[in-house]
């Protein structure tokens, strides 16, 4: 070595650095977690959660070989999982943070703080030279961990929401039933001098009961129970005709037309099919224009078709699948319907059709839209 030459100092690779300073890194991450309001009073163990295991997974990832294709997949958060990751610590971290009450933005902020903390500490300890490749690989690993945590965080929050909705719907039924029974008793006692206010109260109570029934039906499906139906020999012509009369009374401003063609008998859950018909007609009234609503019940072969058509604007084909997702509402709903729509009608229709072994189709053209429910006559029916 010549005079004045600076001695060479080998820099520490990032994987070795994280392993050597893991306690410091985890401590910094825990201090940041405590700054988040939902975690402010949590014990140290909860704050640390699965961060050490996430760091272990990142170290294993940094030390593994990786192709360009694998790097791209990981940078998009689409990797099946970090190589050697113990029990997907990032996924468990996301689930537990959801249970602790964090918002998704706060979960992502945890990872942002972890990323910045590791890189800052590494740069401070190794100021002369850092590996660009290590930085890139580290960012890819963090991005993958974020994707895993967010996915499981979302699943957990959806589950918690559904449990809440189920409890809420169940607890509201008791007081609502008491209100309806009292209103109906008052109505009977004042039948000689009827009070219009009582009629409004009864109709509003029944509408609320209908909304709660729909909410509870969705809740059972969302929690994994699926749609339960009870099949028995039924003529859907009679069942649908009865429902049409109810709908005409409920929608006095709509021109609802009903036709039956062929034999519509089979083994069905008549109550569920009536609910599907009601949802489709109410949907047509909410989104269609002032034209007639046409309902056709057609029996052909081993299948029975129930189709509801309304005039109005064409639905873009690209958004049709989203119409059957829960808690979704269209943009063109009538203002008076918006207040009492949960966005569950078409979702429930699809669940009823699938529980019968059938399906729902949507055909939309410039002159209007048709929703068709296809049901097999019997459990073992085949088209």
UniProtKB/TrEMBL annotation:
Q: Which SUPFAM superfamilies match?
A: ATPase domain of HSP90 chaperone/DNA topoisomerase II/histidine kinase, Homodimeric domain of signal transducing histidine kinase
Keywords per UniProt: Kinase, Phosphoprotein, Transferase
What's its catalytic activity?
Answer: ATP + protein L-histidine = ADP + protein N-phospho-L-histidine
The GO terms this record gives for MF are:
phosphorelay sensor kinase activity
Record-listed E.C. numbers: 2.7.13.3
Which Pfam families does the record cross-reference, listed alphabetically? Answer: HATPase_c, HisKA, RsbRD_N
Q: Does the keyword Phosphoprotein apply?
A: yes
Question: Record's superkingdom?
Answer: Bacteria
All copies of domain Histidine kinase, residue ranges: 167-379
Q: Where are the transmembrane segments?
A: none
Write down the Gene3D superfamilies for this protein, in alphabetical order.
1.10.287.130, Histidine kinase-like ATPase, C-terminal domain (3.30.565.10)
State the protein's name: histidine kinase
Organism encoding this protein = Variovorax guangxiensis
